[in-house]
């Protein structure tokens, strides 16, 4: 399987390493042509404002949006989740605007802006999974076609809507491969 990782800014290599460990091929997507032949794409964590700006500058925003709308499996981690949301609290406009969710950036407040939890996500595994949050967003609104997959401190932090999956945390920064395995299954 060929899994693209949007490589404009953020933690790209960590995702590529996890994909490689699972026996698949990770492709750095820096321009439109790099998306040819991929089975799915990961939008990594980083700074959503910067990645959104670079998506526009590289003229990838609209083609990527169209590919997702026509069914390309996509997984957004943290900033990637913000890029996919139709609405961002306190901001006039979003970026790719494909998922029926509203997000709040940097939602956990300064003292716990970054933290780690072990949580069982029954959709993915029976074992507790390490979740790493780095100035993470939360999902504040979903429509009924969005499946809630995980909550932490009573806040929604992972959801799925058809071919689109988002997590407010960073599985690529742990040694656990379960969540990458889950996304690769979505790409089959
Ligand atoms: N705080 C970042 C943003 O709002 C996201 C942080 C991350 O991806 N780790 O874009």
UniProtKB/TrEMBL annotation:
<dbReference type="InterPro" id="IPR002161">
    <property type="entry name" value="PdxT/SNO"/>
</dbReference>
<dbReference type="GO" id="GO:0008614">
    <property type="term" value="P:pyridoxine metabolic process"/>
</dbReference>
<feature type="active site" description="Charge relay system">
    <location>
        <position position="170"/>
    </location>
</feature>
<dbReference type="InterPro" id="IPR021196">
    <property type="entry name" value="PdxT/SNO_CS"/>
</dbReference>
<dbReference type="InterPro" id="IPR029062">
    <property type="entry name" value="Class_I_gatase-like"/>
</dbReference>
<feature type="binding site">
    <location>
        <position position="105"/>
    </location>
    <ligand>
        <name>L-glutamine</name>
    </ligand>
</feature>
<comment type="pathway">
    <text>Cofactor biosynthesis; pyridoxal 5'-phosphate biosynthesis.</text>
</comment>
<dbReference type="GO" id="GO:0016740">
    <property type="term" value="F:transferase activity"/>
</dbReference>
<dbReference type="GO" id="GO:0042823">
    <property type="term" value="P:pyridoxal phosphate biosynthetic process"/>
</dbReference>
<protein>
    <recommendedName>
        <fullName>Pyridoxal 5'-phosphate synthase subunit PdxT</fullName>
        <ecNumber>4.3.3.6</ecNumber>
        <ecNumber>3.5.1.2</ecNumber>
    </recommendedName>
</protein>
<dbReference type="GO" id="GO:1903600">
    <property type="term" value="C:glutaminase complex"/>
</dbReference>
<comment type="function">
    <text>Catalyzes the hydrolysis of glutamine to glutamate and ammonia as part of the biosynthesis of pyridoxal 5'-phosphate. The resulting ammonia molecule is channeled to the active site of PdxS.</text>
</comment>
<keyword id="KW-0808">Transferase</keyword>
<dbReference type="GO" id="GO:0005829">
    <property type="term" value="C:cytosol"/>
</dbReference>
<dbReference type="Pfam" id="PF01174">
    <property type="entry name" value="SNO"/>
</dbReference>
<keyword id="KW-0456">Lyase</keyword>
<comment type="similarity">
    <text>Belongs to the glutaminase PdxT/SNO family.</text>
</comment>
<keyword id="KW-0315">Glutamine amidotransferase</keyword>
<dbReference type="GO" id="GO:0004359">
    <property type="term" value="F:glutaminase activity"/>
</dbReference>
<comment type="subunit">
    <text>In the presence of PdxS, forms a dodecamer of heterodimers. Only shows activity in the heterodimer.</text>
</comment>
<feature type="active site" description="Charge relay system">
    <location>
        <position position="172"/>
    </location>
</feature>
<keyword id="KW-0378">Hydrolase</keyword>
<feature type="binding site">
    <location>
        <begin position="134"/>
        <end position="135"/>
    </location>
    <ligand>
        <name>L-glutamine</name>
    </ligand>
</feature>
<dbReference type="GO" id="GO:0036381">
    <property type="term" value="F:pyridoxal 5'-phosphate synthase (glutamine hydrolysing) activity"/>
</dbReference>
<feature type="binding site">
    <location>
        <begin position="46"/>
        <end position="48"/>
    </location>
    <ligand>
        <name>L-glutamine</name>
    </ligand>
</feature>
<dbReference type="GO" id="GO:0006543">
    <property type="term" value="P:L-glutamine catabolic process"/>
</dbReference>
<keyword id="KW-0663">Pyridoxal phosphate</keyword>
<feature type="active site" description="Nucleophile">
    <location>
        <position position="78"/>
    </location>
</feature>
């Amino acid at each position: 399987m060929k899994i693209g990782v949007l490589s404009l800014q953020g933690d790209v290599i960590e995702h590529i390493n996890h994909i490689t460990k699972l026996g698949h091929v990770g492709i750095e997507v820096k321009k439109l042509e790099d998306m040819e032949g991929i089975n799915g794409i990961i939008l990594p964590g980083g700074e959503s404002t910067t990645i959104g700006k670079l998506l526009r500058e590289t003229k990838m925003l609209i083609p990527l949006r169209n590919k997702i709308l026509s069914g390309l499996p996509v997984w957004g981690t943290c900033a990637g989740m913000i890029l996919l949301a139709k609405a961002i609290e306190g901001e006039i406009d979003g970026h790719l605007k494909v998922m029926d969710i509203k997000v709040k950036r940097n939602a956990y407040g300064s003292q716990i802006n970054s933290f780690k939890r072990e949580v069982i996500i029954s959709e993915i595994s029976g074992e507790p999974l390490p979740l790493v949050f780095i100035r993470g967003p939360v999902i504040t609104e979903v429509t009924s076609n969005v499946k809630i997959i995980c909550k932490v401190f009573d806040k929604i932090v992972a959801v799925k809507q058809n071919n689109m999956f988002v997590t407010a945390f960073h599985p690529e920064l742990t040694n656990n491969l379960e969540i990458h395995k889950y996304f690769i299954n979505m790409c089959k």
